[in-house]
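Possible regression after last week's pipeline update?

I re-ran a chain I had predicted before the update to compare outputs. Posting the input and the new output here so someone can diff against the archived version. Not blocking, just want to make sure nothing changed silently.
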Amino acid sequence: MVVFSTVAFLLVVAALLFLLPPLVQRQSSKSAVERKELNIMLYRDQLAELEADLKSEIITRDQFDQAHADLERSLLQDVADDGGNKKSGITVSGNLPAIVVGIAVPLVAISLYAHLGKGKDGFDPENFRPGMTTEGHEGTLEQQVRKLQDHLQQNPDDMEGWVMLARSYYFMKQYQAASDAFARTVAMTGENNPGLLADYADALAMANGRNMAGKPYDLVKKALTMDPNHQKSLWLAATATYQVQDYKTTLEYWLTLRQQFPEGSDNYLQMTRNIAEVKQFLGMSIDDEVAIVQKAEAGAASAEADGVAGAAAKVSGVVSLDPSMQDKISPSDTLFVFARAASGPRMPLAIIRTSVSDLPLTFTLDDSLAMNPQMKISKFKDVIVGARISKTGNAMPQSGDLSGQTDVVPLGSEGLQITIDGVVP
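New output (post-update):
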């Protein structure tokens, strides 16, 4: 079984990550705070592995973007829960990493990415930019886990704590311990949560040498009786039947899973390649699958040509601080530099996050810094470029932040001078 790790909407990434401190502050329970810190630490560790995969070209930018978004949704879900109670060969083994990007679900992103390690070994079926650290969160991951273990000894009925502990063990590749913890959470929920059943099956299979036979397969089949379209369960079930060469059943799972993805998307195409493989094993025609893949490859070539034309779509310049504002900042404050459409959505089209210690900062904003693949800077003729200093690191402007921006400038402008000289009311 190869279930591989995952994750854009980088604006959402920034917003969710930097909104976490206020959410944490709303909790009066020390144990809840510790679980949030552990969530964030796991998130950042996993994000670092994704970025390493992207840099080494193990995964594509599209795969990174989707997996990154999935990871953010998982992080938000976990925090909310704390507060409420390469090349297209037609083979499964060669394409599992790309497939699992799209079968991620918010509640399992952290656990799946650790499924087989990192890089080509695995990819999880759900911060900002590279370089995020766990600064601001005390202790190592192991220390946070020990705190959670101590908490659960005193509060054995804390189901959310057990779920977090199980995911932590999984991330640390302690699969038997993860399996035991997931078993406890499943018992506490009465086996009525498809996501937890799939997580339990996943950990149990890993503890058994990645073998889905027996109880792991039984668990995902039960999950599918509750939710026939549960993506992780479909993936694990297909893996189980593929392992025993039950290709007819595997094909049924692949076909159902493909329906979960937009036609023409990367995950849809990767699943199409898997469908083609099992059809070959079954002696069936793969003409339809070949046609789908060829059409997508032709479209990708056209998109690449368009990308060359859009490579010059950028704005650049220097951000500096007005001397009168010097006494209002500290080197550890966060600096955001962004571009947004002159007219239209106020969501940044491209954004950089760094620290005040980098001022004066020479910057370039282009499509590589897009928050949303559908809202790239190259799609707009005129933009406004701004900079903001935040003491809290919050991605959303807050009263007391320092800011400055340009007037409307055409895309392609160079040598822009942005002076931070105002205070957000």
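Follow-up from reviewer: compared with the archived run. The mean pLDDT is 74. Marking as no regression found.
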